[in-house]
Design brief:
- With about 375 residues, the protein is mostly helical.
- The protein has 21 helices and 2 strands.
- The chain has a two-stranded antiparallel sheet.
- A hairpin with a 2-residue loop joins strand 1 and strand 2.
- Helix 11 crosses helix 12 and helix 11 packs across helix 13.
């Protein structure tokens, strides 16, 4: 019976020593966090292994991340897949529709987002200035030089071609007037005024011709004959051609003298701004002007943009990772971690395993104690 208690006691002591030793060894990985000194003498095993080798650990973690965890092949196989490209395309299209194509924002709102203020007033001023400039150029061209130089040649030829028709029209209208009652009254008044202005001689002529009505009729007939005579047409036609030639030589400025240019300019600008109606046009959404924008972008824009982005990512992935220098980033971050954070990080991952190591140490210590007890027993026996 004494042997069993001795054996159990030695197993207990062995387990206690084994468990405590392993627990102390695990703690010495992290503790103490700083070196401990007695005077100028640094105590052995201070600081712990990980605090002491933190720089090497940081470098090794950085290499591990860049060489095994975040590599171009890993990212390419995980992120740049056809499935991810389809998801990215759908996400991109949904955001375009939500925030742009189907948005309630008007063009006014988008211009304000872009930082454009008072765009309507500025645009109207630009339009007015543009119209003013163009109209001033037109005015300068129209008022510089003669009619022959300014007016297009085909216009002049068309106008000259109407001279025969105008001559015939005037002769026809003249014949109609002379042969009408109004013409008769006019001739009678002219004859009476003429005879009265001649005094006694006029009275003698009136007596000679008899009734004034017959004289008027004779004059009417002669006037109609004169109008219908070929010479009258030639005379009138020649006169019109000469006057037209003179008109061609006249300065345009003289012809347009007194023309209300300012009124014309004001009317044209008012009409342009009215038709432009920028304020009304900008008060509409993108969807109002482009109702099929979602369909078009989904077929023509989003797939190409997404494919281009993924193609560029494929080409630039390795170079981009090199430029990022992930190993240096990891090293810098680990160097800035307090040792307690590193301890929590490692223990958070391996706490159960460390406990099992402690238990295993206690178990092995207990077994060793039992073996030692058996050896002592059989040796003394």
């Amino acid at each position: 019976m004494d042997f069993i208690w001795t054996l159990l006691f030695m197993a207990f002591i062995g387990a206690l020593i084994g468990g405590f030793t392993n627990h102390l060894a695990i703690k010495m990985l992290f503790r103490p966090h700083e070196a401990k000194y007695i005077g100028n003498w640094r105590l052995p095993f201070t600081p712990g292994l990980i605090p002491k080798r933190r720089d090497e650990l940081a470098v090794q973690l950085g290499r591990t991340v860049t060489n095994y965890l975040v590599t171009p092949d890993v990212l390419r196989n995980k992120l740049l897949t056809p499935e991810m490209e389809r998801k990215a395309e759908a996400f991109f299209q949904s955001k375009i529709e939500e925030y742009v194509l189907l948005s309630d924002k008007t063009l006014h709102d988008w211009l304000q987002v872009a930082g454009a203020q008072d765009i309507v007033e500025k645009a109207e001023r630009k339009v007015d200035a543009l119209i003013d400039g163009q109209l001033m150029n037109v005015r300068e061209k129209l008022t510089t030089g003669t009619i022959e130089e300014v007016v297009p040649l085909d216009w002049q030829e068309r106008a000259k071609a109407h001279i025969p028709a105008m001559t015939n029209y005037i002769l026809q209208r003249g014949e109609q007037f002379v042969d009408s009652y109004e013409g008769k009254v006019m001739f009678q008044k002219l004859i009476n005024d003429f005879l009265e202005s001649k005094g006694t001689f006029g009275g003698m002529l009136n007596m000679f011709f008899g009734d004034s009505n017959s004289l008027v009729e004779k004059v009417q007939r002669e006037a109609v004959k004169f109008i219908n005579a070929p010479g009258t047409y030639n005379l009138l036609h020649t006169m019109f051609e000469k006057e037209f030639s003179k008109l061609q030589k006249r300065p345009m400025e003289e012809l347009l003298a007194g023309f209300n240019w300012d009124g014309l300019f004001t009317s044209i600008k008012a009409y342009a701004n009215k038709e432009l109606a920028l304020d009304t046009r900008l008060d509409k959404t993108i969807q109002d002007y482009w109702p099929k924008g979602s369909e078009w972008t989904a077929e023509n824009l989003t797939p190409k943009v997404t494919q281009f982005a993924f193609d560029q990512a494929q080409k630039q992935l390795e170079q981009s990772l090199k430029k990022l220098k992930l190993d240096e980033i990891v090293k810098e971050q680990v160097d800035t971690f307090p040792v307690s954070v590193l301890e929590d990080l490692v223990l958070g991952i391996s706490r159960r395993e460390f406990k099992m190591i402690t238990v295993l140490g206690a178990l092995l210590g207990g077994i060793i104690g039992i073996v030692q007890g058996l050896i002592v027993f059989f040796t003394n026996y």
